[in-house]
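Reader question, answered in our methods column.
A reader sent in the components of a multi-part assembly and asked whether the whole thing could be modeled at once rather than chain by chain. We filled in our standard form and ran it. Here is what they sent:
COMPLEX SIZE: two components
ENTRIES:
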Amino acid sequence: MIESPTKPQHHKDTKTLIDALLAEQQSLTAVDRFSRWHESVNPAAHGISYQHLIPLTKPDKGEQYGFEVDLDRCSGCKACVTACHSLNGLDEDEAWRETGLLLGEDWRQPYQQTVTTACHHCVDPGCLNGCPVLAYEKDPVTGIVRHLDDQCIGCQYCILKCPYEVPKYSVKRGIVRKCDMCSQRLAVGEAPACAQACPNEAIRISIVNQEDQATQFRGDRKRRASSDALRTIPTPLFLPVSPLPSITVPTTRYVSGRPFPQAITSADAGTTKPQPAHVPLIAMLVLTQMSVGISLMFPLMHNRLGSPVIMAAMSSVLLLAGLVASVFHLGRPLKAWRAFLGLKTSWLSREIVAFSGLVPLALSTLVLTCFHTPWASALRVPVACLTAGIGVLSVACSSMIYQDTKRVSWKGWRTFSKFFGTTALLGTGCAWVLGTLEGRAEWFLGAMLATFQLLKFAAEHLANLPMERDGEPTSEMNKVGSPAWQLERSERLMTGRLGGWSRSRMALGWLGGVALPLFCLVNPAASPITSLAALTLIVAGECVERSLFFRTVTTFKMPGNL
Amino acid sequence: MNPNFLLPSFLHYRNGPQTADLIQTPSKFGLGMMPKGLDADSTTTLVCGFCSTGCGLTAHLRDGEAIHLSPASEYPVNLGMACPKGWESLAPLAAPDRMTTPLMRDRYGQLKPVSWGDAVAQFVHSFQGIQARCGKDSIACLSTGQMATEEMALLGSLFRFGMQGIHYDSNTRQCMATSHVAYKQSFGFDAPPYAYSDFEESDVLVFVGSNLCVAHPILWQRVLMNERKPQIIVVDPRKTETAMNATLHLPILPKSDLVLFYGLARALLARDAVDKSFVRDHTTGFDEFSSFVESFTEERVLQHTGLEKADFDRFIHALASGKRVSFWWTMGVNQGHEATRTAQAIINLALLTGNIGKPGTGANSITGQCNAMGSRLFGNATSLLGGRDFANPAHRADVARILGMQDDAIRGEKGFAYDQIIDGIQDGTIKGLWVVATNSAHSWIQQESAREALKKLEFLVVQDLYATTETAAFAHLLLPAAGWGEKEGTFINSERRLGLVKQIRRAPGQALSDFRIFQVIADAWNVGDWRHRWSSPEAAFDLLKELSRDLPCDFTGIQGYEMLDACGGIQWPWSDHIASPETSSPRPAVERRLFEDSIFFHEDGRARFLFDNPTPPPETPTSDFPFILLTGRGSSAQWHTLTRTSKSDMLRRLSPDSIYVEINPLDAAARGIHSGQKIQVASRRATITASALVTASVQQGQLFIPMHFPETNQLTLQVVDPHSRQPSYKYCAVQIISGQ
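And here is the structure of the entire assembly that came back:
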């Protein structure tokens, strides 16, 4: 506790001095005093000194620009990142270049190396192929993969598609942005910000032959497929502890005269962070799959139900609700109507088109179910079957969206089994509940439901295990990044940080999908409320499963920092 | 798709508001293409306020205020480059938690805004009250290496001459005291002899305890500009970024460097690789030194350092055969229990081989803070202003005359060093403390002792940019300071270059520059007619010039701030007699080194060989605490206690999220520890939790934790070098308690 002065001791002078100094503190004098020394600076002085870091000529046909990073000159200062942020006028927390750290794991070979990485301006860009609205284009001359910020709808699919975590979503802007190799600087003969700013000239732009690059990383596929010696062909190196370059054929070249140690890892390899949950997507997937599941059951069930209209209506309402939910995922939903543009290469585009086609079909089924005229009765089954067929196609498209990211825990059968598992489970569940609500508990539906739930559990369990068909290790030099490693990390999240979620998922499924249906089987007098409760639990279980699907996926990434 | 085919614009927006946000336009002033919204109407260059490299940064001004910043392409230090901290210099100034008024703690412990008048009245009342009750020496002050030289000189004068305190030290005690003492004893003056061009002109560069790549990235640039294909030898227990780039890395056991350098001296003597005429004509103590090193046999060196014989031989050969050998050291040397002798062991090697005063040579200490060198000359703590001696009556009279004071205004007694101030508070000798621009509650070794001491104080004043530092939490009174870029003054960098800082931003609220705060306090304390003598930073600069006259650091030839600005900084010495128009050129050469005439600053003009028997560190590993804990810089994006660098989104992004400990793979495997796992590290002082990072960069039996985290110094042990009283941050014994 301090004692206050009994009376103010500062005399008047001090007060006026303080006022004068406060005023002085707010006056900026540097310009008046010093700017005259800077008038003589040659306006071009800056750019000229860095021109040797870019090629003298434009790329020829079949060539493009690529970053070249001399690891032996990179001292780990990370100025490239701040320069990218600063010279491009990016948002406060935004930079298009990142650094990471490679570490030696063998005690006999101490090793560390900082790696700087930006967009690799791939020969076969995942972002561009996945974009539903053609918001990416690859410059025909320079090969620079440019993002059209005003075309972007903020669906963030490019983030899932890029193995290098390059596109970054801005909540504030509702779009992603990414490195364009400072094309505006290159256009006037200036080096990109990162290259200019590297004190050691470790970053430059060089010309890359696209076909050589593709052959180098992807090889002659036919020869490789036919060869038993697949694993003995050394894959040309991109960078250790990095995504397999065959996915998108990156053009950045990491050059080093120092050999990489055999046992190598990245500084962030030991840390596991959950990925975003994407709540609107969870809702969209569960609701649309439920809807398709109902459509699948409809041709079998419509004659057995007293009021099949309810079933058809449920399918339509859930479908619409799912699609509405998906809109909340978009940063710029009003621009999303252009989503058909990417049909040629984007599974997201295909999914959107498929579901858009499904809506009128589902509504037609509903309408045909409402009317009992002969032509309506005649058309009902074929239209319902068509709806179910397009529904299956739509769910397949949904699955392909994730399969196409090449992430191991989303690989083909893993996603397909989950998505179609949900479809079957929830379709059966709805049919069963509708039956019980009408007082006709169908024992075979209850049994089917429990079977599907058990099958789904089995599929989810198998999905966590590495399989032979997962293919080559994604990293060329060691286990970091390999399929088994990726699944292990997912598993670590599932049992560790998200253990509570995993346990609730099991509890919900066992209770809603197995225990309650079996209870109703042995006890046909059980109230319809029980079946309704069971369905609610199952749906909740599926939502939790889907949230784990998103949150526990191991993404591909470049070596990171702590 | 045919690349020439363009979709109609209603389908395909190639332009629009988002695209416009990233448009660049060619800018004036040689800045190249710049974002459109950031057009400057003028620019000016100022020196960076983080480390001692002293890079020039070009502020892009609009209406006189900085809106953006980039490295200055024409500044001789950095040649258009900056590290992340430099690039992000403006961000900490705009932090939302800047202090905007003085704050006083009320009886409930809450900080409440008060006027400057009340704050200063409280300052004077409390300190004078303590002095009246408990004696003049019951107050102390801890200053900084982060202020302008003019501010340091004014604070040093105010506290020691005006307030009549003697217990006055600064955080340069934590980083540069060793070099200061080592140079002073060896050369006769605290004089790092080099220019940065020596990095480029060396054949053999020896880095001792210096992770230049991360600590001084812009100096590493100069190493890579060396076109002589130099050998780069790095002496460091860790395989640091710099060690990775070495042609020879010597991973010695921690704190075995003294034995290594004495052994090297012996080996060089044995090979007759000695510059005999230089040693004969320009040094003293050679004979004693050569008989002293006799006992440092190769066997002893290898056993003590853990080096391979082949590596030791390569080191000897490099030194013996290299034409231009330069030695560079940083905190690995300065922060040790026998640091001064270690620095001098390096100086001895340079003297022995005549590697001093010539291009690409020197025994060169690379400084830490942006103005540690200013603090060493004009801090007025260990040395009287200008590097003089407090105990010398003639020196005191000189200073009193220049500053227009009575002779008896300057007390000759030696005050407490930092560690003694902390101890003095603990034992009740010191009751009032003024902390300026430093963060003792985070950075002081064996942190708990500092925190306990701060708690005991009757009155603690903290002067800082933010009220949120660890130390501010203990303060009774907080004074809001303007930061770098919000005030004028000069810094002195590692190569003795005086550079200019300018007022290019308005300070928030009522924050005042440190200089102005000292003016207000001097006035309220009623120290006499200081207002006119110390009327502005530039008036203070004229006093500093006068104080430097006829000293080794004489810079009387610098006419003023405009000249500093025009020359891109000027190294000392630059006296008015070398600068007079009749003699050579009125402008100094851009890069100059000392001792080209081999005349040193001792009265006999000779350098000294200084040495002592090595002693073991006070706390060595035992079976209970089997690991040696090393501490040091984590990344180039972090500065010291993170007070400023944590305010920048970019710098935070480039820094580790939380505290981590590096552990060797063998030690990790033996304990079943994997990267990312939380483990507990304990010393005899404290136990902390950190994430493990398994890496062979640290040797078996050693752990490394970056110093930037507030937990780190809970573990360290307060041990100081007997000559420099600099703390030994880089060695204490710890254990790992099983992880979670």
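What stands out: DSSP finds 29 helices and 28 strands in chain B. The CA atoms of residues 96 and 647 of chain B lie 9 Å apart.
Send us your own complexes using the same form.
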